[in-house]
Amino acid sequence: METIIQVVDYILYFCMGITVLYLFIFAVASKFKRKNKYPKTDNLHRYAVLFPSYNEDKVILESVTTFLRQTYPADKYDVIVISDHMTEKTDNELREAGATVLKATYQDSSKAKALQLAMNSLDETLYDGVVIMDSDNIAGSSFLHDVNKAFDKGCQAIQTHRTAKNKNTNTAMLDAASEEINNSIFRRGHVNIGLSSALIGSGMVFDYHWFKKNILTVSTAGEDKELEALLLKQKIFIEYLEQVHVYDEKIAKDDAFYNQRRRWLAANYGILAHTFADLPKAIFTGNWSYCDKIFQWMQLPRVILLVGIGFLSCLITLYSWQMSLKWWSLLLFLMVTLVIAIPNYLMNKELLRSVCKVPKLGFLMFLNLFRLRGVNKKFIHTDHE
Questions:
Q1: Low-confidence residues of the chain, pLDDT below 50?
Q2: Helix/strand/coil for 270
Q3: Which domains does the chain have, with CATH numbers?
Q4: Predicted TM-score (pTM) above 0.85
Q5: How does pLDDT run across 170-180, given as a tens digit for each residue?
Q6: 141-162 burial, b for 16+ CB within 10 Å, e for fewer?
Q7: What residues contact residue 138 under an 8 Å CB cut-off, 6+ apart?
């Protein structure tokens, strides 16, 4: 029995240790400074800016009216709202603000279907690029000017820096920190060493013709992950523009956090099941961004990793304090990694107070692992305050 316990102990330690080491390497890489590769250009491309909006009457008007204040020439972009389960009053206000409204009437709604509706409705000869925003996203007035610099240099896929616009509760504060950790590790850290950035679902820019061809093949609730897999499989680099901000509403309540993470987990493991068979070919063809992404999708979510390592550290201490030392060291290593990845502006008393919610949120995430069946095929709406 003692031998079995030791074997299980080392297997768990190895699996979790590999993940922590992976996170540490990219957290450190995120601290490298990048040179500005995209100078100002006079070549102004034309963009379709899509806001897929399901029951988003509370937030969509502010997002659209703010985006329409771009310093980019008004004749070089169109804002299109795909209105699904929104009121006629909201639709009319959006039209009056200057947006085009496409009405979706799906019984089985999804973001992928909304995007497909838009691409089937628009004249593809009018646009060079497509921008994907969420209904609660707020972009700065120079957003299109900034992304156009990279787009003009041949970037076919771009992820901008999505960051929190609210930190009004402990859960929202932790969500904001999690977003920035992702930005550090899976975006800035990756592009700093030549690997593709991760996509995040909004604040994204694509070559219009590539997007139209590929979005029509997407069928799950994890449309951003499907697009990511398609890009990497085709060896298209995903650029990350750290200085181009999109402000996103963070989850303020625990139940909303639970539902959102349940959707994310289902999308993550759904795409892993779909792409895992591609790993040998990706290795043999040197498609390292795709290899990295598949390995990334194999990992446990950070909050489960953090709570899991903490729990095992305590549990193994009761069995053998000598065996537990490596677990306590791994927990410290993970905590140092997360501190490296969190930007300085979030390192404050509010974040420290919010840490008390981590065990509860970790437990909710753990429960989600047992409630993923069928979730990746249906749309789960996240309510806003």
A1: none
A2: helix
A3: 2-31+273-371 (no CATH), 47-251 (3.90.550.10)
A4: yes
A5: 888 888 898 99
A6: eebbbbbbbbbbeebbbbbbbb
A7: 62, 63, 66, 67, 165, 246, 247
